[in-house]
Amino acid sequence: MTIRLKPIKPKKISDQVFEQIMELITRGELKPGEQLMPERELSLALDVSRTTVRNAISKLVVTGFLEHRQGQGTFVCSPEARNKNPLAAAMQSQDAGLEDLLEVRMGLECNAAALAARRATEQDIHFLEKSIEDMKAEVGAGRLGTEADVSFHIAVSYATKNPVQVHIMRDFYDYLFFGIEENLSRLYEKPERIENILIQHRQIAEAIRNHDPEQAYDAMRTHIAYVLNFFKNREE
């Protein structure tokens, strides 16, 4: 029997640049509307050629995470201005409901929280705590804090150190954003519910900080079940 094998190709440098910038966006370090530093500065900071940076940026523009503005530069797109993601399109067209999304998140994110509790570094915990403080500040200013909420859940994913988990959640990013925005806008009918969300985030972060997988799993399950039950009871 003849088995055909393909040569292993090293990961392109432009793909590594793409990954770094994508991580900054999904973690909320680069926020919607924020300008990306010029190609020249990026190439110096990353120690790669400007062509490599340009290729990575082009890929991010094609995928809808960045946009070029004539005479101004390159900016981070808001998920609201992006409809390229088929999952987000499904949400918008109501082919999938919020309960469907929350049921999927229950499976994905409870396991992620448990893995994060085993593997999180100090930097991961920093990102979790920062996203909680950012959301608290946004809510205090009368806004929903959607980006910070999404950043929290993405930070849990990165803390798993599982590339498949990270890849799934990044592909899930737009859908997650739309779902969380809709959740928060309805929960905001009673402000104490948003405070409950913040408390739940703190409990998840504390369990991960304490490296307690069981507690982290339960805390994430409680958090998602809280929102899911809200919508079920609301409809009833």
Number of strands: 2
Strand content: under 5%
Number of helices: 11
Major sheet: arrangement of strands? 1-2
According to CATH, the homologous superfamily of the largest domain is GntR ligand-binding domain-like
Measured on Cα atoms, how large is the radius of gyration?
A: 19 Å
- Label the CATH architecture of the largest domain: Up-down Bundle
For the record, what CATH class of the largest domain applies? Answer: Mainly Alpha
Computed structural class: mainly alpha
Ranges where pLDDT stays below 50 over 5 or more residues in a row are: none
Shape: globular
The ordered string of helix (H) and strand (E) elements is: HHHEEHHHHHHHH
Please give the domain count: 2
How helical, in percent, are the residues?
55-70%
Please state the average pLDDT score: 87
Gap between N and C termini, in Å? Answer: 61 Å
Predict the CATH topology of the largest domain.
Answer: Four Helix Bundle (Hemerythrin (Met), subunit A)
Specify the biggest β-sheet.
2 strands, antiparallel
Explain this structure.
There is one protein chain. With 236 residues, this protein is mainly alpha-helical. The chain has two domains: 13-77, Winged helix-like DNA-binding domain superfamily/Winged helix DNA-binding domain (Arc Repressor Mutant, subunit A, Orthogonal Bundle); 86-235, Four Helix Bundle (Hemerythrin (Met), subunit A) (Up-down Bundle), CATH 1.20.120. The chain contains eleven helices and two strands. It has helices at residues 13-26, 39-46, 50-62, 86-92, 98-119, 122-140, 146-159, 163-171, 173-187, 191-209, 213-235; strands at residues 66-69, 73-76.
